[in-house]
Design a protein that fits this description.
The protein is α/β, with parallel strands linked by helices. The chain has 3 domains: 170 residues, Molybdenum Cofactor Biosythetic Enzyme, Chain A (3-Layer(aba) Sandwich), CATH 3.40.980.10; 72 residues, Alpha-Beta Plaits (2-Layer Sandwich); 152 residues, Maf protein (Alpha-Beta Complex). 40% of the residues lie in helices and 24% in strands. It contains 16 helices and 17 strands. The strands form 4 sheets. Strands 2-1-3-8-7-6 form a 6-stranded mixed beta sheet, with helices on both faces. A 5-stranded mixed beta sheet has the order 14-13-15-16-17, with helices on both faces.
Amino acid sequence: MRAEIITIGDELLIGQVVDTNSAWMAQRLNECGIEVLQVTSVHDERNHIVQALNDALSRADIVLTTGGLGPTKDDITKHVLCEYFRMKLVESSQVKAHIERLYASRPQVLNKLTATQWMIPNGATILPNRVGSAPIMVFPMRTKTLICLPGVPYEMEIAMTEQVLPFLRQRHPSLGTIEHRTIMVSGIPESSLAIMLAEYEASLPQGLRLAYLPKDGVIRLRLSSDGQVPVQTLEEWIDQLQFVVHNYLIVTDDRPLEVHVADALNAHRATLATAESCTGGKLAALLTKHSGSSSYFRGSVIAYSNDVKRDVLGIPEYDLQRYGAVSEQVVRWMAEGVRRITHSDYAIATSGIAGPTGGSAEKPVGTVWIGWATPNGTDATCFQLGKLREQVTDRACQKALIGLLERIR
């Protein structure tokens, strides 16, 4: 079973709003055994929407759209669909009653524009939208299904979970499950990894495929089945994959690295602090973005200036002047200093030249020193992490977390 997603709205195409809907929807569809062939974003413009519908329906069994269902003039999706299917807008007592209940405590919202929300194409099937006024519309055809959802992310997610996915399972009872297994590796270029895995890939049975997903110095290897391969076979081949790449293997599932760090710290009842210069708090933000981080994360010092490095973290002025802020000596002092003042078991420190300015022949842009202070001692490593500022800081955070995992283990 194949699906396509069409997201509708000018705001998506000018970068004003980031399309998070399609990624979330694709994950949920995939879990149901529905393969997403393509995601398309289109303007709030009739011809563009019609062309996207024609293209998607020519390829996919299921087409889902989001956006363009509001009450304002620029929301034209319902009108285009009426024309497309040669239908008329008629009042739906079901939708009207729902909207009146929804806004019972805010009668001022029930105006002439809101009233357009209960005008529905007369051939569409309506699924309840528990939290919003835009109806979920289904246009079943003989061999295809078109489903139109609201564009507001939380509305869409509830609509998909409570209405659309159960509807699709009922309409297509033979849906299977596409299985994925993901591991993460680091310390090897993608091209070298592909050469290493060439024989493994060539041996994969039909129905299994391997994907390479590099980001920030980490490569995720995802092994996917087509829903027909037994789970046991998938597990056997992921075990073989881990054996082949064991020298570079970091973790054996797709959870973020900071979650693995949290698990490792909690397992040892250990705590962590960070001292950050070039990463500017990004590492601490990663470590605290998940619930429960207070059990292991004690705090951070963003020591961007040498004064803070000296006065807060206790780095000797002599070392700052002699070696510079971006150096092994200083980053080791930073890690030890923040570990001491926060009474933590472990500490990470980062200091580097994120760019685009500030580099030199000796220390070019992308030079980052990372230090780790542990109960067993302190060490540091120098990395060259690229030329783009955000790339450098993101990669530094990943290297810092990988290094901490290695030291905890």
